[in-house]
């Protein structure tokens, strides 16, 4: 029982994954669920968030289709398969961004708050653990 080794760092212990590595393993698994496999740190997540925000701009393509007086896309545009494709792509991108953001703001709450505080030139709030 004492002869087990952590599958992550190889240190001998009493479990398949040591306590220290467990935190990282869980963080990585949650990131994967959030659609960001391989992302484990705030810096990586921040870069991923920026890339997704750029992706979400696929929604801009939707604004190129003609609209009627009420601001709705015209029936002719709706019948256009290109419109349907653009709408589906935008919807997918938005869903991906939303799923990722929910995880991102929850996981890096302290880091995001600190970055915001620094931008606002205020002291970073004390982080309660
Ligand atoms: Zn370990």
Order of helices and strands: EEHHHHH
How many distinct folded domains?
2
Q: How far do the termini sit from each other?
A: 33 Å
Structural class: mainly alpha
Give me the count of strands.
Answer: 2
Query: Quaternary state, please?
Result: single chain
Annotation field: number of helices: 5
Strand content: under 5%
Give unreliable regions as ranges. none
Percent range of helical residues? 55-70%
Shape: elongated
- In order across it, which strands form the biggest sheet? 1-2
Mean pLDDT: 85
Major beta sheet summary: 2 strands, antiparallel
Rg measurement, Å: 22 Å
The kinds of small molecule bound in this structure are: zinc ion
Question: How is this structure best described in words?
Answer:
With 129 residues, the chain is mainly alpha-helical. It folds into two domains: 1-33, no CATH class; 41-129. The chain contains five helices and two strands, in the order ββααααα. The protein has a two-stranded antiparallel ribbon. The longest helix has 27 residues, at 81-107. The radius of gyration is 22 Å and the shape is elongated. It starts with a strand and ends in a 10-residue tail after the last helix. The mean pLDDT is 85. Bound molecules: zinc ion (ZN). Zinc ion binds at residues 6, 8-9, 11, 18, 20-21.
């Amino acid at each position: 029982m004492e002869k087990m080794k952590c599958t992550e760092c190889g240190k001998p212990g009493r479990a398949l994954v040591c306590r220290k590595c467990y935190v990282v393993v869980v963080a990585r698994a949650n990131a994967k669920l959030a659609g960001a496999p391989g992302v484990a740190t705030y810096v990586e997540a921040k870069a991923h968030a920026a890339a997704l925000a750029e992706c979400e701009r696929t929604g801009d393509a939707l604004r190129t289709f003609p609209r009627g007086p009420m601001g709705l896309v015209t029936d002719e545009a709706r019948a256009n398969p290109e419109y349907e494709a653009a709408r589906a792509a935008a919807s997918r991108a938005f869903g991906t961004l939303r799923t990722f953001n929910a995880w991102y703001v929850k996981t890096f709450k302290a880091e995001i708050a600190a970055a915001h505080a620094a931008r606002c030139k205020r002291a970073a709030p004390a982080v309660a653990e």
